[in-house]
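Quick start: read one record
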Amino acid sequence: MAHTKEYTEDGVLIEEIDARHLEDGLLRAAELIAQQRSFVILLTHYKELLATRHFLDYSLLSQLMGIRIGLVEDKKAVLAQPDLFRPMHIDDYEGFVHGALQETLHHSPNDTGHSLAERLDKVLTNRWIGFPLLVLVLYGVFELTFAIGSYPQEWIADGVEWLCAWLSGSLPAGWLTSLFVDGVIQGVGAVLSFVPNILILFFLLAVMEDSGYMARAAFLMDKVMHAVGLHGRSFIPMLVGFGCNVPAIMAARDIHNPKDRTLTMLMIPFMSCSARLPVYMLFVSAFFPDHKALVMMSLYAIGIILSILFALVMKRTKWFRQPEGDYVSELPQFHRPTWREIGTHVWSRLWDYLQKIGTVIIWASIVIWALTYFPSRSMDLEHSYLAMIGKWTEPLVSPLGFDWKMSVCLLTGLPAKEAIISTMGILYSGDAAMSAFTPLTAFTFMLFVLLYFPCIATVATLKREAGRVWAWFTVVHSLILAWLVAFVVYQIGILFV
C-alpha cells in the first residue's frame, strides 16, 4: 500500500505523506531534496498518529529539511507560506530521514511496539543519558587499549633492547654500527613498540564506526556544534581526525557551505591523531599508571573543547560570520559489523602507520643520529650538533619546564609526531627519560604535542583544500596556543607540587 501521493497544484509540487508511515514517505522527500526540487509536504492521518500518543514537531521538521510542511487540512495556509527550499547534499537517504525523525518525532512513553534499534536510539541519543554513556564507552576503549596492549608492547620493547645489545656485541665498532643500532633500530623500535596498542584502538574504533555508534556520537554533538554556529555534519570529519588529520580535512569537502567547510578544516588539527598516540601512551604509562585511561581521555577532551572554543571565536570574525542554518544530521540504522569490514578499516589505518614508520621515521632517526654523532664522532650528546640546536632553542621552552632535549624532541616532531618517540629512543637511554620528566612536565609536554604545529602532510593538505593563508594561519596560531596553554598549566602546576 502506497504511503505517499504526489501531484501538482497551482504549479507547486505536493507530496502527501501518511503520518502513520513517516519513514517510508520521507524517503521520497529526501530524493526530491537531493534532486534540488522545491515542493511541499502535506501530512495525512495526523490525528491517528496522535492517537498512538506519538507527536511530530512538523514545524521543526520543516526548518531542518528546508521545505514547507503542514497538515493536509491546512493546505491553503501551507501553500501561502513563503518557499523555504534550500539545496542540501544527502549521502544516505535512510540516515537523513532517520536523523530528521530522531529530532522531531516524540514517541509514546510506552515503547512496547518499538524495535530494539529504536529503543537503543532512544537511550544513546538522549541529551541527558547519551553523553555519560559516550564517556563511559570511550573510557572503556582506552582502558582496553592499555590493558591488552601493554603485554605485546613490553615484548617488542624488550626484543628491541635485546637486538641492540646483540648487534652492538656482534658488529665491529664504528659509525656504521652506531648508525644501524643507535639510530635506525633504537629510533624505529621505540615507535614500533606501540603498534599493538594502536592496532587494538583502531579495532575498537572500527567496531564503533561500522556498527553506527559513531554516527550517534556525531548526532549528540549536533546540539553543541549548533551552539558555535556549525552543523553536526562538521563533527564527522573531526571524528575521522582521530585516525589521521589528512583524510579528515579531505572529508570536510562534503560540507557545502564554504565558510563552514573552511572552519571545520581549521578545527581538525585539534583532534588527537594516531601519530600522537605513541607520545601519549609512553608518558601516560610511565607517569600516570593508575589513571591511564582517564588522562588519555582528558587529552582528547581538551582537544575537542579547544576546537569548539576556537570555532566560537572564529565565527565572530568577518571571515566566518553568517546566519546560522538548520540541517538534518544523518543517522544510519544500526547494523552488525562484519569481520571483513572491520579488517578493511583496521588494515587501512595500520598500513598508513607502518608506511610512515618505514619512511619518515627511518629518515628522521638517521638525521637525529647524525646530529647526535657528529662532530665528536661518538654519541657524546653534550657536544653534538643536536645539543647546539637544542640549547639555542631552550630559552623558548624553559618557561614550560622543558630542557634542550625536550626542545629537540618537539622540533623533530614537526614532520611527523611519531618522530618524537624515535628521538627520545636515541636521546634517552634506559630510564633517563623518567628522571628528566615529572608528572607535571610530562602532562605539559603532552599538551604541547596535542596543540602545536600539525604534521607537514596536514599543512600541505590544508594549503590545497583551504588555501595558503589558512595553512600558515594554522601553523602560527597552533604554535602560539600550544605555548600559552603549556605555560599556564606548568606555571599553575608548580604552585602545587
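The chain has a mean pLDDT of 86.
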